[in-house]
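Students often ask what a holo structure prediction actually looks like on paper. The answer is less mysterious than it sounds. You provide the chain, you provide the ligand, and the output is a string of discrete structure tokens encoding the 3D arrangement of the protein together with zinc ion.
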Amino acid sequence: MITIYSDDHNLHSGLLKPGDNEAEISAECPERANNVIAVLRDQGFGEIVAPGYFPDDKLTRIHAPDYVQFLQTAWQEWEASGETGKNARPDTFVGAGMRHAEVENIVGKLGRYSFDATSPFVPGSWQAIRTSANIALTGAELIRSGEKFAFAACRPPGHHATSRYCGGYCYLNNNSLAAQSLLDGGAKKVAILDVDYHHGNGTQSIFYERNDVLTISLHADPKIEYPFFLGYADEPGEGPGDGSNVNYPLPFGTDWSHYQIALAEALDRLRRFAPDALVVALGLDIFAGDPTTYFEISTDDFSRMGEVIGALDLPTLVVLEGGYAVDWIGQNTLNFLSGIENA
Ligand SMILES: [Zn+2]
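The corresponding structure tokens follow.
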């Protein structure tokens, strides 16, 4: 399986936790992707190639043009305004009853385009964000041109990003960009299977009223876990998209014996949709050893998971999402990808 990767993600570093813990480094750190690539290289998993460059109109197939512009200049505007924080971060949001006004102040802009405070900007953020999208789009291009499988080693991740809001460590929605690119390249139907521990709210909202993309997410119940305000079982899609979104909210402590039942149901649903291609939003934060989450999926379980997904026998692009057990994320990724290939 070909992996697409770039060192550019290292420019998106020095991210801090919001609030009182601003001295603490964010869990979404460069070591994550570096560990993944180190393990794939060490184990000789397959060819690792650099991403191509795709023009902005690929991004605006999914994201609002003014939002893309904001992402591009957020750090420069923050610095130019005299703000001294090491991270550019919002502190005021567009709440109910307020206006989504076209503000000029950068702190206001950060609030206008963010749904939470977890996605800050540092000097190298835009280049890393842009390259991460290029990685996913290169993966889609490889699938379109006949590769059976590809792995887009994206960082920052993307599944929480909506068409015009960043949040949850995400800025551009890499898996959605890839799915749209597959459709634009000739696929009639694409499915996105999100196995990150957290609900893929951005991906769901982007395709919620469409029937050419089936979005399925297995995740911790939003009643008790981030992102809290989307990801419930009664969100089937709207209008033409009615029936094209499926959520599996799962309890804390979910292990493979329970997870595989929900996954089998999800894959049945996916088979019935009969997509031309599959995009997997691979979050490794369902791992039992993840310091930030509460599922009990083991390193060996990732192999089993890859095998059942690989058995769908679809052209499949795997896109890296979350996963914060830095010392294990590489091995768990390798097991999942090997499972897909060996199915
Ligand atoms: Zn996650």
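Residues 196-198, 283, 285, 322 surround zinc ion (CB under 6 Å).
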